[in-house]
Amino acid sequence: MQYYVTVNADGYIDGWSDSENEGTIAIQATDNEYLKFECVRVVNGKAVLDESKLQALQNEPAPISEIDLLKTQNIEFRDTILDLAIIIDNLGGNLE
After folding, report:
1. β-bridge partners, 16
2. Mind listing the pLDDT tens digit for each residue in 36-81?
3. How far apart are CA 96 and CA 89, in angstroms?
């Protein structure tokens, strides 16, 4: 089937489309390659799946979500506030 793709600096497909857009190139691809990102190259107008790159991508840990990052920061801030409360209490509760 024909698709239109964009390719990153490493030569791997980083965007797929069913229609031609500015900056895309026309290629032939099967369902096996379609919508796979960062592990499919274009060779002679055809999508070619890089199995080793696909395997490496699948073995990478999932990126931490922004919500999980904020939760972690929230816990760190809470711990810092508790540490400061202990220091203030040890100083007699007076910062002056």
Report:
1. 5
2. 998 999 999 999 999 998 888 888 887 889 999 999 999 999 999 9
3. 13
Q: What DSSP designation does 64 have?
A: P
Stretch (H or E) spanning 29: none
The one-letter code for the residue type at 51 is E
The two three-digit tokens of residue 51, written as one number? 């199995």
Tokens (6 digits) for 87: 């220091």
Instruction: Quote the tokens at residue 5.
Output: 């793709």
Cβ neighbours of 16 (radius 10 Å):
19
Residue spans per domain, the chain: 2-59, 61-96
Among 31, 12, 11, 83, which residue's Cα sits nearest to residue 3?
31
Q: What is the reported pLDDT for 8? A: 94
pTM of the model: 0.58
